[in-house]
Amino acid sequence: MEGFEIRISNSKKGKGLFATKQFNEGDVILAEDPLVSCQFAWNATYRYLACDHCMRPLETPEQNVRRLSAKPDIVLPHSNCFETDLLNITSCNQCGILYCSEECKEISYAKYHRVLCYIQSETQHPINVLLETWKQIHYPPETANVMLLVRILAYIQQHSDPESAAATIKQFCHRTVNEDAELVHKLLGDEFRSQINTLREITASVINGEYIQEFLTPEGFCSLMALVGTNGQGIGTSPLALWVNSVSNLTMSDDEKQQLDMFIDQLYQYVEEESGQFLNTEGSGLFLLQSACNHSCAPNAESSFPYGNHRIELKAIKTILPGEEIFISYLDECALQRSRHSRQKELAENYLFICWCERCVAQGSEPDCSSEEDMSEEEEDADD
User: Fold this and answer.
1) DSSP state, 112?
2) Is the peptide bond before 141 cis (omega within 30 degrees of 0)?
3) What share of the chain is helix, strand, coil (3-state, %, to 5)?
4) Within a 10 A sphere around the Cβ of 235, how many other Cβ atoms?
5) What is the distance between the alpha carbons of residues 321 and 23, in angstroms, rounded to a whole number?
6) What's the pLDDT score for residue 374?
């Protein structure tokens, strides 16, 4: 690991990621593939066709925008180079699941797919039963998929050293039993909190073995579900976004640039009218290094997926000096702009901690409710 190290941050936060050299704004700190990743269940159901291993979309930008906008006549300029990405699509010889390349197919089989391979059309197969049960519990917008949990178990079971693999997964589990239960309650919601035992029983019918038994007990399963809900990093890939980034870097006149910008704006308007906010192939993954990053409301780094698949990139957004901790934000850009009270409320509800970052400490004198938006939120909560 060059340029950073993982060490204990403090007794409350546990481990953190620290710089061992200076990173300037725009520098890439790390790029990392996940231990395992998985597309969201409803996202796959709604024909966001993607590689079953790396989540690379299996459609060209033109196919993508035509589908999302329901306009089959749209033609994207400068998009021919993207068609070559689809030439290597292959499938599992047994179950027919699609991969973007032979390499992804082989990695998947070696890591977890060997014990999870099944005939997709068997509606009563335990995996299909589990997926359908999950989809009735967790509707869009999605934040997790129970199949990520299943792949974690398969990763342990297929590993050449299952004990070591289990120990790696346990690094992510550091909360109390009550905290795990609270996080699972938040993930499933009031209506479905009693379904966790049903999910556990179906999961045990999907995969079982000596080294994963502890994760299939009520307590162990709750801990693993909490892990998936909080440590599962959201992944988003979009052929349209890759095309936009590509054409935006082309050399062209100011008039051509203006015409292109207007065309892109019109594309996104068409897509929004037909598909709303659901533009990306979406899922989540478990990242060993990136997951060591703690939260700050004034982050010095941010994560993105510039490779068009599940490979994550962590980039500095301001200067980071040797010895300084590398922080990301667990909140989206909109939530970050809100008051300290609102930020802390969201972090407490979704991650079970109170933020004491430099920004929150500096804003400590702010009233508990400091904006009209926050006041309306409090009133809504009271009405509920």
Assistant:
1) I
2) yes
3) 50, 15, 35
4) 25
5) 7
6) 54
Q: Which of 245, 218, 214, 144 is nearest to 186 (CA)?
A: 144
> Residue 40 and residue 21: Cα distance in Å, rounded?
37
Residue given tokens 């990301």 in the structure block = 328
pLDDT of residue 197: 93
292-316 exposure pattern, b = at least 16 Cβ within 10 A, e = fewer: bbbbbbebbbebebeebbbbbbbbb
What local confidence, expressed as pLDDT, does residue 257 receive?
A: 92
Cross-strand pairs, 99: 90
189-239: pLDDT as tens digits: 777 778 999 999 999 999 999 999 999 999 999 999 999 888 899 999 999
In angstroms, the Cα distances linking 121 to 46, 124, 317 are 17, 9, 47
Residues of the chain falling short of pLDDT 70: 1, 11, 83-84, 174, 369-384
175 vs 180: CA distance, rounded Å: 6
What are the φ/ψ torsions at residue 288 (nearest 5 degrees)?
-65, -50
pLDDT in the model for residue 51: 97
φ/ψ of 367, rounded to 5, equals -65, 160
- Strands annotated E in 142-247: 233-237
pLDDT at 383: 55
CA distance linking residue 54 with residue 66, whole number of Å: 23
Q: Exposed, middle or buried, 185 (CB in 10 Å: 0-12/13-18/19+)?
A: middle
Contacts of 327 (CB under 8 A, 6+ apart): 293, 294, 295, 296, 298, 299, 300, 301, 357
Q: For 317-337, what is each residue's pLDDT tens digit? A: 999 999 999 999 999 999 999
User: What is the model's pLDDT at position 189?
Assistant: 78
The number of angstroms, rounded, from the C-alpha of 270 to the middle of its chain's C-alpha atoms is 26
